[in-house]
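Q: How would the structure tokens look for this protein?
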Amino acid sequence: MATTYQYLLRRKAELETRMIEAQRRAQAPFESELRAIILALDALKQAGMAERLSAGEPPSFAAQSFAPLPTAAAPTPAKRGRRGRTTRDMILMTLAQAPGLNEAEIARQLDHRWSRPVTPVQVGRELEQLEVEGLAKRSGPGWIRLDDQAQDDEERPSLSLVAPGH
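A: Here is the predicted structure in token form.
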């Protein structure tokens, strides 16, 4: 009877070991995906983008059956890293550096320079709003940024130096 008991104990230990190994094998793909998601979330938090992305609507790839996560109760951590810029700011910066760009080229610049995927239609809407506010205007096929240069020249003193006698 002792041998049967010992056999059953060994068999129980083997089955428990096999069950643990089977659980690990079954969880492995999920664990690697979970680690990747945690790394991506940490990167977004460190870049200061978590608040901006969590406050908006759910991403387009999210299924409609999921309820949005509650964000009102979550405390906002201190911002670190680069300053979060609005699409409007980035459009104005792009126009300041390269005037005369059209909507498609501005959208490409935003995606290339700041990894901000924006459609040309969205850029067009933003440019129309900037035009209403007097910050940009259409110039031929593209857009240019309007600055109050006369006002800026009055506010900023000239930094040019003239040597005496010249």
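The chain has two domains: 2-55, 87-150.

Residues 2-55 form one domain.

Upvote if useful.
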